[in-house]
Amino acid sequence: MPANRTAGGRPATRPRPVARGGPAPRPASGRKPRRGAPAGVGNHPTRIVLSRVLMVAVLVIAGVRLVQVQGFQADELSAAAERQRLTETTQQALRGQILDRNGTQLAFSVQTVSLSINPKQLKADWDSQTAVFKTFKLGDTYEQYTQGMADFIHQQLGDQAKAADMLAKIRDTGTTYALLVRDADPVKAGTITKLYTSIAPAQRQQRVYPDGSVASNVVGYANWREDAKTPQGLIGLENSLDDTLKGTNGSTLFDSANGNDDLQLPGSIREDQPAVPGSNVQLTIDADVQYQAQKMLNAYKVATGAADGSMVVMDAKTGEVYALAVTDGFDPNHYGDYKLEQLGDSAVTTPYEPGSVNKVVTAAGAIEYGVAQPDTVVDVQPSFKMADRTVTDAWGHGDVQMTLAGVIGKSSNIGTLEVAQKIGPDRFVDLLTKFGLGQKTGIGLPGESPGMVPPRSTWSGSTFANLPIGQGLSMTLLQMTGMYQAIANDGLRVPPRIIKSVTKADGTVVPQAKPEPVRVVSPQTAKTVRDMMRAVMQHDPKDTNQNGTGYPADLPGYQLSGKTGTAQQPDPALGGRYSSSKYWITFAGILPADNPRLVVGIMMDKPNYSIPKIGSSAAPLFHDIGSYLVQHFQIPMSPGEAPFQQLQLP
C-alpha cells in the first residue's frame, strides 16, 4: 500500500509546508491553487482583467493602424514608395537644321555633355576616404589627385579644358558646384567620368554654324537653356522659327535603386515617350551668293570708308532672296565675342531715305497714267520752286531740254518734280502703297521695319517736293529691292520670301506658302520703264550729256536696267537739317534688262564722298557682284547692246 494512503484507501492528510518566519497563507476561497500556478498570481483576477484589457487595446491599436495604412493612407504611402524608386529622365529633342536652297548646312545641332563637380564634397570625401582613393592609384595626396584629374581632363579635351583652369575650379572648396566643361564630346566625356566618378555628366546640345559668319544676320543664334534642357533661339530665324526648330523633348520613366538614374533596374521601364526632333528649315538663300555678297560688300566698305552697308540679291520672278548681306557680320560659333549692335540685320530693320532710287515711282506713274513717254521732252530749268522749297539738281546747268529717259538716266530732281506734278499727289501716294512702302514685307525675319511714308492727310506743299526725289520718306533695302522686282516682273510685285520649305520629323516636306502678288502697274508700263531705265547705264565717250549716272555698273555683253541714288542724311548737330557731308548712296539694278532674272539692291552708309568714282556711287559694286552672278547662275548674254537713247537735246 502506498505510504500516502490509509488502510481504507483514502488519501492521507498531506502535511502543510511551513514557511520560514510564519505559517503559510491559506487560499482565500479555501480552495487549493491550480497545479503549476505560481503562488500569489493565480488568485488575483484584477490582474488578469488588466492584462486582457491591455492585450485588447494593443490589438485594437494595431487594427486601427492597419486600417489606416491599408485604407486611408494606402494611396499616399504607395505614392511615396513609388517616388522612392521611380526615376524620370528627359530625352532631348535634337534641334532642326537650317539649310540653304541647295542643302548646304547653315546651322545644326550635335549631342554633347557638360561636366561638373562639387569641390567641397570632393575634398570631404578625400579626407574621409583617403584609403579608397589611394586604392585606384590616382595620387597619394589630395594635391596629386586633383592635379592628375585636371591634367587628364585637359589631355582628353585639349584647349577646351585648360589644365590650370580645371585645377582652380576643382580645388575651390568654398563652392558646391563648378562647371568644368560646357560642351564635351560624349565619348571623351565618358572616358573622364569612368575614371573620375566624382565628375557629374549632363546631356546637352551644341549648335554648330559650319560657315561661320555666312548668313549669320539671317540665321541668327541659339543658346542652350539649362532649365528647359534645350537650345533656344535668341536672334534671327533661330528666334522667329524657334517653335518649328526646337522639337519636343521625350521622357523615360523607370524603377531605379534609391531613385538613382544610373542604377536602372532591368525591365523596369514604365513609360517611354520618344523625343520628336525639330523640323528642318530650308531657306531660299544661296550660301555661295551670300558669301560673295558679304565679301564684296565688306571690301567696298573699306574702300569707300563707309560706316556700313547692305546688299540684297532677289529672284526677279518669285521674290526669293538669294542673298541678304550686311557688313561686319558675326560668327555665331563665338557669339559672346560680339557687341549687341553687331548682331542686327540692317537690310530689314534699319530704314533710310532712298534718294533718287525712288524716282522709279515717278517714272512708272508717268507711263501708267499717260503723262509722258520715254522720249517726251521735259523743260528742265536751273531751279524749281514748289511751295516753300527751291529745288536744284546735283550739277549746275541753265535751261536744258531732256527726255523723260534723260530725266531718269541723268537723275534730274527738277525734271522729276515737273513730271510728278502732272501725276498728282493722290495717284503718287497710291503708287507708293502698291510698291509696298510704309508696310512690312512679311519676310519673317524678326525686327523688320515698315519704313515710313507720311500719311496723305499730313502732307503740305513741300511734302510733295520731297517724296518724288526720295526725301521725307524712308524704306529698308529689302523694300527698295522689292520695288525694282515689280518692274522686273512685268509690274507684279511679289513680296520677298526667305523660307523655301519646312521638313517635319517624319520626312513630310511642307513648301512655304507663296505670298499674294500685288499688281503695281501694267505689264506694258513695267516693260517701258525697264527699257527706259537702261539709260542709267548708258555711256557715250564723245558726249557726256548722253551719259547716265550709273554707267560704271555696265556689264559687257548684258543689258542692264537700274537707278543710282544719293540722299543727304539729317544731321542732329544741325537741328535735323540735311547734312552736306553725310550721305546714303544706293543702287538698284535689274539683270539682264531684256530678260530679267535677278534684282540687286545696294546701300552704303556715310561713305567718304570725296573718294573719286566709288565714294559717291554704288554702281561699281553692282558691276562686281553682277559679274559673279551671271557666271554663278549661267545667265546667257543679251542678244545685242541696249539701243541708244537721247537723254539731252543739243
TrEMBL record:
Pfam families, sorted: PBP_dimer, Transpeptidase
Locations listed in the record: Membrane
Biological process, per Gene Ontology: cell division; cell wall organization
Key word Transmembrane present: no
UniProt-listed InterPro entries: Beta-lactam/transpept, Beta-lactam/transpept-like, PBP_dimer, PBP_dimer_sf, PCN-bd_Tpept
Keyword Glycoprotein annotated: no
Biased composition (Low complexity): 1-28
Position of the signal peptide: none
UniProt-recorded Gene Ontology molecular function terms: penicillin binding
Keywords attached to this entry: Cell cycle, Cell division, Membrane
Region (Disordered): 1-43
Residue stretches making up the Penicillin-binding protein transpeptidase domain: 309-625
One term under GO cellular component: plasma membrane
Domain Penicillin-binding protein dimerisation: 91-254
Family: Belongs to the transpeptidase family.
Name by which UniProt lists this protein: Cell division protein FtsI (Penicillin-binding protein 3)
Species this protein is from: Kutzneria buriramensis
Classification lineage: Bacteria, Bacillati, Actinomycetota, Actinomycetes, Pseudonocardiales
